[in-house]
Amino acid sequence: MIQRKVPDVVIRRLPMYLRALDRLDPKEVPIVSSDDIAKMVGTSSGQVRKDLSYFGVFGKHGVGYQVYSLKEELRRILKLDREIKVGLIGAGNLGAALVRYHQKSKDHKPLEIVAIFDIDENKVGQKNCRCGNISYK
Q1: Domains of the chain, first to last
Q2: Which tens digit of pLDDT belongs to each residue from 73-120?
Q3: Within 10 Å of residue 57's Cβ, how many Cβ atoms?
Q4: Three-class SS state of 96
Q5: For the chain, which has fewer Cβ within 10 Å, the N-terminal or C-terminal residue?
């Protein structure tokens, strides 16, 4: 099988397609057309089909794409189907807000915040701080 290099512009459009699909409830809208996706992201249906064709065949001609399956495939392609461990640098107001938001969010979370780094020695070594149950380092 010949591997084609995927243009950067295609890779940059994939998250737009995923966000558009995330706005659809697969129970209410189980199948979506390339035209529907195109209208949601502001491109053409041909562009959507061409972009997705770089990664395989996901839909059926004349029918469309299964919303749930296409979302999962896009997450896999974008490597959002696995958890990524990260450390947060800076535990001030913004850092604390990011951690609290992340812990309360019910959305798909590909990031796991495992440590928070800060220069404030009063925060170092604390657990269950205002940022949640994450240790400062």
Answers
A1: 8-77 (1.10.10.10), 83-137 (3.40.50.720)
A2: 999 999 888 888 888 888 888 888 888 777 776 665 677 888 888 888
A3: 8
A4: helix
A5: N
